[in-house]
Structures
1.
Amino acid sequence: MLAVLVLALLLGGAALIGWGLSLLVAQAVPTAPPYLILVFIVVALLLLMPVVGRLVPWIANWYYLFPAIVFLAAFTILPIVLTVNYAFTNYNAVNSGNPDSAARTAATLSADRRVVTLQETPEAASVREYLRCRAESCAGDTIVLFDEEASVPVRARIASVNGDAVTLAAPLPGTLEVANATRLNRISRVGLANFQEIFGKASRALWPVFIWTVVFAFATVVLNAVAGLILGILLYNKRLKGRNVYRTLLFLPWAIPAVISVQMWVALFNQQFGIVNKTLGLLGITAIPWLGDPLWAKVSILLVNLWLGFPYMMTATISALATINDDLYEAASIDGASRWQQVQAITLPLLRASFTPILLSGFAFNFNNFGIIYLLTKGGPAQEGREATAQSTDILLSWGYNTAFSSGGGQNYALASAIALIIFFLTLAISLVNFRAAGVFEEARK
C-alpha cells in the first residue's frame, strides 16, 4: 500500500507539472495542440522517476505496478471523478465551455490592443448581459475573439466593461486581427438542481424505468435459469443418443455475436413482413405488434434475451452436474427413487450452491444490459405521459444514454451524470443484498 501511495503521488505530481506547463504554453501560443499536456506529463514522469528512486530506493522494485496505476487512474478513477463533478453542473450541448458561435458579433480592436469594441449585442440589452458576466464589472470573465477567417478562437481575460467597450487584462498578440467576438458558454455549478429535476419528474421517468429495469433483470434471470436448467439436465443424460449434436446446436445462439442475433430478431418480429407474424397468420392469428406496442415490446425483449442467455445457463448446468457423484443416483435408483425424485432430492439441492452466484451475477449484468435494449427497441415504442428519453422499454442505463447523447435529451451530460450516480447507488444497494443472500459476508468473517 505504501508503494502504491508513492507511485500515485508520483503520477499526481507529474500530472500537475504537465497541466501547469500546458497552461503556460496555451497563454504564450494559443494555437498549441491540446495533446501537449500528455507530452509534458510523460516528460515529467521520466524526470521524476530517477529522483524518487534516489529518495526512496526500494520503490524501484515496485515500478512494475505503475502501468496498472496509470490505466486505473485514466479509465476508472478519472471517469468517476468527472461523472460526480458534472452531476452538479449545467454541462450540456449548449453550456459546453466552448465559444457560442450563434451569438457571434462584429468587433474592432483599439490601437493599444487592449480595448475591444462590440458593434452590437445579439439578444441582450448590454455587454454584461451578452457576455453573461458573473460580476458587475465583468472583471475576470472571458471574451472569445476571432480573426477574419474565424479559424482559431482566442480567449482573452476581461478587466472591465464600459458601454460597448471591453477592456482586456492584457494586450492581445500583434498577430491577431480582431474581426468578431462572442461569449463563452460556461459550465457552472447548479448544486442539486439535476437531482431535483430527476425526482421532480420521477413519475414520468425514474420510477417507471426503475420498475421495468428490475422486472427485466429478474424475469430474464428466472426464464434463462429455468430453460438452461431443464435443457442441461436433459442433455446430461448419458443414455440420450446424439446429445453432443443437441448440445452443439443449442450452444450456437451464444456463439453468434449478439449484434447479429438481435438484428435478425428485429427482422423476424417485423409486424408486416416478419416471419413470426407470417406464421401466426397461417394459423389464423392476427398480426402481433411485437416492437410497436409497449407491452409486446417488453415481451419481445424477454424472448430475445432468453434466446441469447439460455445456452450459458445450460452450459453451467452441465458443468455443475459433472461434479455430482454418480453413486448418489445409483443408490437412489436402488432405493426405488424415480428420475423426478432424484432430480428433486439430489440434483437441485446440489446445484443450489453452484447456481446462486451465477444467478446473482446474471441479475447484476442484466440490470445494466444496455445492448439488448438499444439494438432491439432503442427504448421504444413511445408511451404517453413519459419523458422522451425514458420510453416504454428503456432501462436506467439506456435512459442515461438517451439523456446524454440523443437529441431528444438535449445532450444533457450533467443530467445524465446525475442519473449515473443514481444507478451507481441502486446497483450498490442491490449488490449488497446479493452478497448477503450469497453469504459472502459470512465467508469473509471466517
Note: The chain has a mean pLDDT of 88.
2.
Amino acid sequence: MELLVLLYALATLYFLLMVWKWVGAKRDQECYILDYQCYKPTDDRMLSTKFCGEVIKRTKNLGLLEYKFLLRAIVSAGLGEQTYAPRIMFSGREDNPTLLDGISEMEEFFEDCIANLLSRSGVSPSEIDVLVVNVAMLSAVPSLSARIINRYKMRDDIKVFNLTAMGCSASLISVDIVKNLFKSYKNLFALVVTSESLSPNWYSGNDRSMILTNCLFRSGGSAILLTNKRAMKNRAMFRLKCLVRTHHGARDESYGCCMQKEDEQGRLGIYLGKTLPKAATRALADNLRQISPKILPVRELVRFMVVTLARKMNRSSSNKTTGGPKTEVNFKTGVDHFCVHTGGKAVIDGIGMSLNLSEYDVEPARMTLHRFGNTSASSIWYVLGYMEAKKRLKKGDKVFMVSFGAGFKCNSSLWEVMRDLGDGNVWKDCIDRYPVKSTDNPFMEKYGWINQEDPSTFQVPEFI
C-alpha cells in the first residue's frame, strides 16, 4: 500500500513538473515591444504645394491630361503639406539617381532613428541578439543590415535577416520572424528596422497606373525593439497576442495587381492595376476569417453564427436572396484601437467599412496619412504613435494592426497594452493641432485652373 502511495506521489510530482516546465516555456516565448521610434526627417525635406508643382513641371513627359489626372489624385489623396521627400528631389536629380543616393537616404534614417531608440531604451548595440531589416526597393552590397551592424558595432554572433521586395506589409512579417525565434531562444533582444528608399524609385513616365505612387509615398521609417525577457515585462509597452499572415501570390490576379516594372518607354516604376481593390478585399476577408476566432470573445462568435444561421433560414423560407438581419462581426468586442495602414484615403475608407469602424477609429490613420503620407511598411507605427500621443492607450487595451503589401499580402496582429502610454514621440511638436478639421490640401486652389485648359492650345506656363 505504501509503495502504491509513493508511486502516485511520484506520478503527481512528475505531472506538476511537466506543467511547470510547459508554463515556463510559454512565458519565455512571449513577444514584448520594449520601445519603438518613428523617423522624422529634417524640415528642409518637407514638401510644400509650391515645391510639388515645381517637381511635376520638370517631369517633361507629362501633358495636360496627365496634369489633370495628377491634380485629381493629389487633391483626393488626403496628404497635407508637411510630408517628406528624399534629398534627391530637392537637388532636382530624381530622374538620374545613383546607388549612393539610396544608401545615403537609408543611412540618415539609421543614424537618427536607431540611435534614438537605443538611447531611450537604455539597451546597447552589443546587447542586440536579432536584427531584422526590411527595405523593399533597395538592395545593396554589403546589405543594409550589414551597414547597421558596422555602424553600431554589433556582436559577431547576431542573427540577421535582410528582407527586400516585401512591400508595405513587411514590418509585421519582420515581427513574425522575431516571434518565431523567441519560441526557440530565451532572453533575447530583437531590433526590427523598417523603411523605404524612395531616392531611386521616382517614376518619370506618363503611365497613369504608375504615376499614382508618386502622389502617395513619402519618406519615413521606424525601429522597434522587442524582447522575450521575463525581467523586462514591467517595462514593456505592448505584448503580442497573435499575428496572422495571408498570401494570395498563387492567384494571378492578386499577384499582378501591384508590381515594379518598366513602362513602354523603359522607365521603371510601381504599377498599380485596376484589380488591386478586389485583391485587397479578398486578402482582407481571408485574413479576418483566420484571426477573428483568435481575438474575439466567444459570445461574439456565437452571436455571429446564430445571426448567420437565422439569415440563411429566412432566405430559404422566403425564397429571397436579400433581407434578414445583418451578419457583420463586431470587432470592437475584442479590439479597442485600430492601426490601419495608410495606403491611401480609399484604403482607409475600405478597411473602415469592412470592419464597421467609426470616424474616431480611423482618425489615427487619416491624420497619419495627412501628416506623414504613406511611408510604406512603417506607416502603422506612425498610426500607433498618434494614438499614444493622444493618450488613448491604457493598460489592458487591445490594438489591432492591419497592413497590405505586394504579392498580394494582408497581415494583421493584435497587441495588448502593458501600461498606460502617453509619450509625445514623433508627434510631440504637432499633436495639439490634430485632428485637423479638413484633410483637403491647397492644390485645387492653386492649380485648379488646369481643369479649364484646352489640350489643343495648352502650354506649360513659366511658373505653375
Note: The chain has two domains: 1-26, 31-296+334-452.
3.
Amino acid sequence: MTRKKSDRAGWGINTRLTHSGNDPHDYYGFVNPPVVRASTVLFPDAETIENNNQKYRYGTHGTPTTDALADAVDELEGSAGTIIVPSGLMAVTVPLLAFLEAGDHILVVDSVYFPTRRFCDGMLRKLGVEVTYYDPLIGAGIDALMKPNTKVVFTESPGSNTMEIQDIPAIAEVAHRHGAVVMMDNTWATPLYFKPLDFGVDISIHAATKYPAGHADVLLGLVSANDKHWKKLEDAKTNLGVCAGPDDTYLVLRGLRSMGVRLAHHEKSALEIARQLEGSEGVSQVLHPALPSSPGHAIWKRDFKGSSGLFSIVLDGGPSGEVQRKKAHAFLDALQIFGLGYSWGGYESLAVQVRLEDRTIAKGPTAGPLIRLQIGLEDTRDLLADIERGLEAAKRVAG
C-alpha cells in the first residue's frame, strides 16, 4: 500500500530516513530505486515532444534516481524543491549565480568555508558583484551593513574551523526587511539537527559528500529552496547545465538511510572527546558549539537539536609562527588512527591544520596552531589515545 507524505509526519527521524524518497511498489517491490543512467529520453509521439508533455524529457532534467533523493531531502528540509549538483562547492556557487548579478552586493560571514570565499573574491568580483564580509557573531547588528543593492546574505553556522554559531533568525529578519535572500551552508548540522527554512533561511545548502554519503567515496551537493525562491533556483540549475551522475546520487540516497544512526554516534563520540580535551595539558582551547565555552553556545542550545562530529582544538603555542608550525606538524605526524586529509563526515577520523590568514573580520584564536578534528566511528578510547600521542609529540617541540 502506497503511503502519503502526510502519513509519515508523526514518524521518528530514523523511520523517515529509512522510508522517504521512494515507494518500493513503484518498482515491483524492490526496496531500492533503480539507478537510471540516461541522456536521451524517448517520447511516444510528435505532439508529446512538441509540448514537452511527459515527466522525463532529458537526462539533465532529472531521472527517477535523482527524484528519489530530491524527494527525500525535501521531506527532511520542508522545502519546495531540491537540486542535486556534482559537489558541495557547486551547491554554493549555483545559488549565488542564480540570485546575483553585476552591481549587486553580497554579505558573507567571515568564518565561511574557504572555497566559498575564493569563489566570492574571484568569480563574483569579476562579474561585478560587491562582496563584504561580516563578523559571525553580529546577529541583528548586520542591519548596519545592509545596502540598497544587498541582494544576498550568505551564512554558515557553525563557522568553518572556528565553530562560531550565528543568530540565524535575527539575521534573516533583517535581511528580509531589506529584500535580501538568505542562504545558509548547513553541512555541519544537516537537517536532522537544524532545519534552516524553519528559521527564516530561503536557500539551504549541503555538501552531501559529508554526512548524507557518509563513506568518503562520493562527491555531491544539495540545494533546497522555499516556495518563493524555488523556481529561480531550478531555472539557474537548468541554464547552467549542471547535473549529478546517477551512481553518485544513488550512493547518497543509500547513505541517507543510515545517516541518523551514524550522526548520533559521531555526536556522542565528538562530545566525549571534546569534553576530555577541554583543560587538558597541551590544549589551549576547544572549539565545539555544544560546549558552554564556545562562541554562540547559547544560540546553539536555543536553535539546534544536536551536534555533529566536527570540531577544532587550539594547541598550546610558542613564541613564533615557526614554533607553532613545528608543533602542529609534530602533533599530526604522531597520529596513527586519524588520517591527515580534507573533507569530513565519513566513517573515518581525520585531522588537519587550519590557517586563518584569509579572514578580515573574525581573526580566530592565535594562542597556538588550530587543528580541525573529524571524529569518525572508531572507538572513543582509541581516538583519545591517538590524540594523546599527538599532544605528547607537540609538547616535545622546543619553544
Note: The chain has a mean pLDDT of 94.
